[in-house]
What we know:
Blueprint: E1 2-13, H1 19-22, E2 28-29, E3 38-42, E4 47-51, E5 56-62, H2 67-81, E6 88-101, H3 108-117, E7 124-127, E8 135-140, E9 145-150, E10 154-160, H4 163-178
Antiparallel strand pairs: 1-5, 1-6, 2-3, 3-4, 4-5, 6-10, 7-8, 8-9, 9-10
Amino acid sequence: MMKLVNISLTVKLSCAVDLKKISDDINCRYNPSKFNGAILKVNKPRTTFLIFNSGYVVITGVKKTDDIEKSETNLTKFLRNKGYIVNINERIIRNLVFSGNFKKNINLPSLYNYIREIGFIKETSASYETELFPALICNIKNKKWSISIFHNGKYHMTGLKSNNEAIDFLSIITSFVNSYDNLIE
């Protein structure tokens, strides 16, 4: 079973934003010598907004698709309280992150060798360097999908744009993991 754990998206506001003007709020930080955008944090739903002068905003930390509109409403309400007449003109979902568990230990060196020898999809790459990171990372380049598989069977999938892509990717990975008996410890 997989669970959606983070949504990243971008929105384009109907106006430019004066970052100095909005940064007087306790929840908003702006330090142009470190980062050229303002960082706004909101608790319900817990979300972080990276706001740029141009009106371009990166939204991260959204946990459910139902909370996307709530997050956007929090953003526009915050800006309206600062004197802006603002709407959201465009929304693009950039990344969905899912976590899950195969519910079995996986022999990562064997899986890595199996992927390298056999491959399971064209344009696939894999890396497994335990000194750098304790998981096997598998990428499908033409889709920009990635999965990190840990020894205990847990995984994280990134680069996805929809629930359907996540289901398709997990189906591919699951059938591949289940097709090789030596992967299970």
